[in-house]
Amino acid sequence: MSLTKTSIIVRSLSTSAATPQLVKPPIQVFGLEGRYASALYSAASKKKALDIVEKELSQFQQSIKSDIILKEFLINPTLKRSLKVDALKHVSTTTKLSPTTSNLLGLLAENGRLGKLEGVINAFKIMMAAHRGEVACEVITAKPLDQAQRQNLEAALKKFMKPNETLLLTAKVDPSLIGGMVVSIADKYVDMSVASKVKKYTELISAAV
């Protein structure tokens, strides 16, 4: 992450005239979305508005998904940036958004980055989950896990976590795995599926022929 670029965004999101110092999020998210989310986390943290901003952005994200007109307005590249800025200021005022959330929407509009808004919101959610000590884990299996399997898996995964952390387990099914499982926890990824082993052996055989 570019500290200089993030600091510029932090200054833009700050509601104070003083030179802001960056409050680092508990987890780093890379890319443009990560820079905006980090700056947002810093600004909201100083205002003690982390929970408020997360709630407002989650509600706005739901509006984007349910309102096609709103989504088209945000991502339409032919509309002038100034028009989007004014429209979002009106939305922020009428819906009584916090200054930090309002500043984010205005900054993205000014910079022509509203198409990245959902990515920024998702990055911010990851930071907030880490802030609460939540560890997201996704498990993909060929067949649905029964209750006993899920409990055994949760018990095994919790051994790798700190005492103050909470496991958020999401289970998905992908028959193409044939058997075994694929586990993603925090920034770690382990492929223990039969399909991956078959692919590996196939490649070894092909190389030997």
UniProtKB/TrEMBL annotation:
Coiled-coil residues: none
GO cellular component term, pick one: mitochondrial inner membrane
Tagged with keyword Cell wall biogenesis/degradation: no
Top-rank lineage group of the source organism: Eukaryota
Compartment annotation: Mitochondrion inner membrane
Main location: mitochondrion
Gene Ontology terms, MF aspect: proton-transporting ATP synthase activity, rotational mechanism
Entries under Pfam families matching the protein: OSCP (PF00213)
Keywords associated with the record: ATP synthesis, Hydrogen ion transport, Ion transport, Membrane, Mitochondrion, Mitochondrion inner membrane, Transit peptide, Transport
Similarity-based family: Belongs to the ATPase delta chain family.
UniProt-recorded name of the protein: Oligomycin sensitivity conferral protein
Organism of provenance: Parnassius apollo
